[in-house]
Design goal:
This protein is 44% helix and 8% strand. The chain has 255 residues and is mainly α. Strand 1 and strand 2 form a beta hairpin. The structure holds zinc ion. It comes from Patellaria atrata CBS 101060.
């Protein structure tokens, strides 16, 4: 049986632009029928049901967790009692739509930045490079738009990340190349992690003595400068989300 054909106009003048929506069975995404329950919240009272093929698409943690030898893989249930439903809502939407949905109510407020950082830290924990990288780009973009650096959140960042984390790096870089004195006025030395202060002093000293370029690193380097995919994984910007990955096919074919 071949797929049904549907062709729709896609907003072009006089219907000149027509979006192709007829696809072959070979081109379809294979979601499969296996689902995984994700429980989040302090009491694990927020429940999500995600296709296993979607859940294991980009997260190395979920790929491992779904192996039969793991309890989670046997039960098809994964629990996160220290992750909020707000964070997982964002991740779930991203998994299915490849889009990040954020509230614009207070896009320059600390709680908004905290929301982005928590999402990034969750991506770090589940080893999902594409999700981390899109959250990093959102975080960076918001700081640029608002001309505001959430210095008060450096403890959350430094507490939740490894020394080599791009999230630590971007905070030091943004503070090196921007006037963040206003944000700093509201902090005491005890409010800021020592590693952050040391990194910042080192960076500012290099900048003062001309050992850093005049152009900020986010402008002078590739778009992947703060991404964590490295050379091992493709950038999320180049992923073809219409097609399941080879690993996705393997998961589906075993069902
Ligand atoms: Zn990249």
């Amino acid at each position: 049986m071949t797929s049904k054909i549907a062709t729709v106009k896609d907003g072009g003048e006089d219907g000149k632009v027509v979006k192709k929506q007829r696809l072959t069975l070979k081109e379809r995404s294979r979601l499969g029928s296996s689902g995984v329950v994700i429980l989040v919240g302090k009491r694990l009272d927020s429940k999500y049901l995600i296709h296993e093929s979607i859940l294991t698409k980009t997260s190395l943690f979920f790929r491992s967790a779904m192996k039969k030898e793991w309890k989670e893989g046997e039960e098809k249930i994964v629990r996160f009692n220290d992750v909020s439903s707000e964070t997982f809502d964002l991740y779930q939407c991203w998994l299915y739509t490849n889009a990040v949905y954020t509230s614009e109510r207070d896009p320059s407020g600390t709680s908004f930045y905290s929301f982005l950082i928590n999402a990034y830290l969750f991506g770090d924990r589940i080893l999902d490079h594409p999700f981390k990288d899109i959250m990093m780009d959102t975080f960076s973009q918001k700081m640029e738009e608002n001309s505001k650096i959430p210095v008060s959140l450096t403890y959350s960042i430094y507490y939740g990340t490894a020394p080599s984390s791009p999230l630590r790096r971007i905070m030091v870089d943004k503070c090196t190349y921007s006037d963040f004195s206003e944000s700093l006025d509201r902090q005491t030395a005890d409010d800021l992690p020592k590693d952050f202060l040391m990194g910042l002093v080192r960076s500012l000293s290099k900048k003062t003595w001309g050992r850093l370029p005049g152009i900020p690193p986010w402008d002078s380097n590739s778009n992947c400068y703060y991404h964590s995919h490295g050379t091992e994984f493709p950038c999320y910007k180049t992923l073809d989300w219409g097609e399941p990955t080879s690993d996705c096919r393997l998961v589906n074919s075993s069902m």
